[in-house]
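User: For a teaching handout, I'd like to show students what a predicted protein-ligand complex looks like in token form. I'll give you the sequence and the SMILES for zinc ion. Please answer with just the structure.
Assistant: Understood, here is the input followed by the structure.
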Amino acid sequence: MQRKIIHLLAVLTLTLSCSRDYVTGKRTFNLITEDQEVAMGREADPQILAEYGVYEDEQLTAWLAGIGEEIARVSHRPNLKYTFRIVDSPVVNAFALPGGWVYFTRGILAHFNSEDELAGVLGHEVGHIVARHGAEQLSRTQLAMLGINLGSLFSERFSRFSGLAETTVSLLFLKFSRDQESESDVLGVEYATRLGYDAHKMANFFHTIARLSQKSGSSLPGFLSTHPNPENREERVHQLAEEWRQKVAFQPRKTSREAYLRRINGIIYGQDPRQGFVENGMFYHPVMRFKFPLPQGWSVNNTPRMVQIVSPQQDAVIQFQLADAATPDEAADAFLASTRQTVISRDDRRLRGFPAVSLETKISSETESLRVQAWFIQKDNRVFAFYGFCASENYKKFQPQFTRTMRGFNRETNPSVLNRKPKRVRIRTVPAQGSFESVMRRLGVRGKAIDELALLNGVERDTVLKKGDLVKTISE
Ligand SMILES: [Zn+2]
């Protein structure tokens, strides 16, 4: 996959073509043709889905896509085919790939407080596609990249070997420039206003974004790290909203906060423990019913495709994933065939009754040498694979930690783990007029959770709510 992208990018650098600037209508030299833009998006889309997973809510997805289509039709590239998806991530972000692919996380959907906010951000993302920002960024990125910087989570030395430690997708989360952000804000306001949405609400949402602390520990970056704030963003969006109302004979559309909240009632909030979670130094997977211990102080990145566990100095990594094999032996053979390496030891064993194969190997290149410890373990007709990588000179230090994690793999039977449920946004009715804080207390919310909910509702602690208003709360 990684190689394919690099190849595609390499081809793209060599292609100069004349194309139209869709916003100004001028002919400009652009590195990339529309067909190539579409090819980039089409190739990257399955990787995004494999890495982050689709949020399965047909109704919400269809509704989002409906508004997306309307925006696309009033945009400067109405004939492009657009695809709108919801990604199963708690991170608050939206992003666009060249050629017409737009993604909203379930996290951003939980944080909107109206359809107008959503339409503004949709307009902004479609704006990036219209103005070919992604294609521009990619053609710029690829130049840097041919010098090779894969922007990996951990030391790039691991990503060069075997394709096991690939982090291709991080490359797709392009960081736009502030100028591109400004341009997309303008387009977003225009498109939303043409459809009768209140673009002032888009500014409100940027305010919410600014209040969100950028939580780390997730492989998907937050909104501000991919869409950096241009100066005075909120103020400027308010201004633009006024300007565009004058320009387009504004016909306000009937939307309400209540209608939006009802649509997202029940949306999953935060991490979904059913996809695996970390607690007390252990990684648990309630659906596949296993657990294993984590090395102390290492960071964990859990995606649908794999769990990556990275040492504090990023000089060792343990990767855990499903092996595409029927037996541990087959999985070990496939791994050995995937990369040239020297086998130091290979043992057939049983681990707590599970058939297993353990391997120690060495991967050498001209410049360096890596040591690998791998375990392939069969449980319930699945083969799980652990790969621990580090530089040979560090193997003494990391080997005990690799072994402890991999040998610690075990079945999980504890019902409190197996029955773990995700938290969801639940819409409640305000029982009596009062400040947001007092309403939350009446609903049984205490402490810091009140601040989190104020942010989620786009209000302050002292904002006054009326009896009968709807509010978002969080519970199972
Ligand atoms: Zn942006």
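For the handout, you might add this sentence: Confidence is low (pLDDT under 50) at residues 1-18, 143-157, 159-172.
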